[in-house]
Design brief:
Udp-n-acetylmuramoylalanyl-d-glutamate--2,6- Diaminopimelate Ligase, Chain: A, domain 1, 10-stranded parallel β-sheet, alpha/beta, UDP N-Acetylglucosamine Acyltransferase, domain 1
């Protein structure tokens, strides 16, 4: 057994190597080496940290990290003991380095004797299937995919190559997962859409006979649910990133590279455009069209279509700046109401005086 920290300590990089990989420049000792990552306020010798938020600038002058990524335009106001690697975007550069590290870790492979894999399933090369996972008839698992314990891939479902399905993921029958997708623990792909027809005696279930399709490079957060369509597909386009505890209803389409924060719900048959950013606890009503590059602030309730490029907030949603102005006024409403009633009283008194003359 060995830990991730032990793995990382075997990977040692110098500031010069890091700068060359990121297209940056070194300020300080180009031979300073690192073998782990650390937050700048918790830095230790041999660690790589980053600074992108000015709120953390104070820690740069005291950090024990050996190398710190900073933006090219950063200007230090005090001496810095760490070696700096200047890059265009420190946060993006850190992500590249962490992705490099992740890609260098050896993946698991082999099928556990405690897994249940149908003889009618098609399993690719270098696949890992953990204990108590179930791969049903006709399922297809692509090369280099990692399936952790207690995962279910249903009958006729397909999972692409280089995917990771963490414990307790359920992919229902017939659903399709693209390449390089990551599904976190407890996520459910393809449960029935919420479709019921009201009758005098109650609600009759409407069969949900469609599927869910995730395109390439999609990441699904823990306990997030994407419902199968009534007919056709519920589709999540390539590059979409979904946080934990999100509900995507039947026949929804989420456009390319859209990111959605936790506890958001999208009702049936709505279409969300590409490159949208949706804040946590937002809600989108059914049968709506959300344009491309739309930003929704946290807890936004959308009940109408939105055009490309809009930034909205509140419930019901209004323009972002209008929402901020309204928020400032809201706390003063009781006093404003009192003032208005007083003014109305004075106006009536003036009218009465004028009429009496």
């Amino acid at each position: 057994m060995h830990s991730d920290t032990e793995d990382l300590q075997k990977m040692e990089f110098t500031a010069k190597q890091i700068a060359e990989f990121l297209g940056g420049t070194v300020e300080g000792n180009e031979n300073a080496s690192v073998n782990t990552f650390a937050k700048i306020e918790e830095g230790t010798p041999g660690a790589l940290s980053f600074l992108s938020n000015v709120k953390y600038t104070q820690y740069l002058y005291s950090t024990q990290s050996s190398v710190v990524l900073v933006n090219k335009d950063f200007k230090a106001e005090q001496p810095v003991s760490a070696t700096l690697v200047r890059v265009d975007n420190a946060y993006e550069s850190l992500a590249k380095l962490m992705s490099l590290y992740a890609s260098m870790k050896p993946g698991r492979n082999g099928i556990s004797s405690l897994a249940s894999v149908s003889e009618k399933a098609k399993i690719g090369k270098n696949v890992y299937i953990g204990p108590f996972s179930v791969i049903e008839d006709g399922a297809v698992i692509g090369d280099d995919t990692q399936i952790y314990p207690h995962v279910i891939v249903g009958e006729g479902a397909s999972v692409g190559s280089k995917c990771i399905l963490y414990p307790h993921v359920t992919v229902y029958y017939g659903c399709r997962i693209g390449n390089r997708c990551i599904l976190h623990a407890g996520s459910v792909i393809g449960a029935d859409g919420f479709g019921f027809a009201p009758t005098p005696d109650g609600y009759n279930k409407i069969p949900q006979i469609g599927i869910v399709e995730l395109e390439d490079d999609v990441e699904i957060g823990a306990n997030t649910c994407i419902d199968r369509s009534t007919m056709g597909r519920t589709i999540v386009r390539k590059g979409v990133k979904l946080d934990n505890l999100i509900q995507i209803a039947h026949n929804v389409e989420v456009g390319e590279n859209t990111v959605i924060s936790a506890q958001t719900g999208i009702a049936g048959s709505s279409k969300v455009g590409a490159w949208c950013m949706i804040g946590g606890q937002s809600g989108i009503s059914g049968h709506l069209t959300i344009g491309n590059k739309v930003n929704l602030g946290a807890k936004t309730g959308v009940i109408g279509n939105t055009a490309d490029g809009e930034t909205i907030m509140g419930y019901p949603a209004i323009g972002y700046r209008n929402f901020l102005r309204s928020s400032l006024i809201f706390k003063d409403l009781p006093e404003m109401s009192k003032t208005i009633r007083q003014l109305e009283k004075e106006v009536e008194e003036l009218k009465a005086k004028l009429e009496s003359k």
